[in-house]
Specification:
There is one protein chain. With about 140 residues, the protein is of the alpha+beta class. It contains 3 helices and 6 strands. The protein has a 5-stranded mixed barrel. The longest helix is centred in the first third of the chain and has 16 residues, at about 30-45.
């Protein structure tokens, strides 16, 4: 006779293993959710602040993927605008007086630091210090 009661044996047999459960979760999760999860893990691993936790006038270091890059004049001055996403929230990154920057393109990962401002309810980082992430790590 076994020391484990019969009801516990049947419960254990009916529950899928953790590895199998994770595989099922990954298959049933959308691609966007999986990418957000990876970006959040990258943020944590690099020691950066999550964008969703950034507050107005706070000096931060954030990382993520550029979703969009557009040229949009501000007060008659050219401005290169990009949306950075880290899996938690978007952040607008704006380089004033620039029409283009080599390497700043949609899909590129980068680390940016500077002071966050709130503009029309969105977080914005003006003229940040930035570091492009190596393409091999993407």
């Amino acid at each position: 006779m076994s020391a484990v009661p019969r009801s516990e044996k049947s419960d254990r047999a009916s529950r899928p293993s953790n590895r199998f459960r994770r595989m099922l979760d990954r298959l049933s999760t959308s691609q966007e959710d999986l990418e957000s999860e990876e970006l959040q893990e990258d943020t944590h691993a690099s020691g950066c602040t999550r964008i969703s936790e950034c507050t107005d006038r706070q000096i931060v270091k954030v990382t993520g993927t550029l979703r969009t890059v557009t040229l949009r004049p501000r007060a008659g001055v050219p401005a290169l605008e990009a949306e950075l996403f880290d899996g938690t929230a978007p952040l607008d990154v704006v380089w004033l007086g620039r029409r283009s920057i080599v390497g700043i393109e949609p899909g590129r990962k980068l680390i940016a630091s500077g002071r966050v401002a709130m503009s029309h309810g969105r977080r914005v980082l003006f003229n940040p210090k930035y570091e492009l992430r190596p393409l091999g790590k993407e």
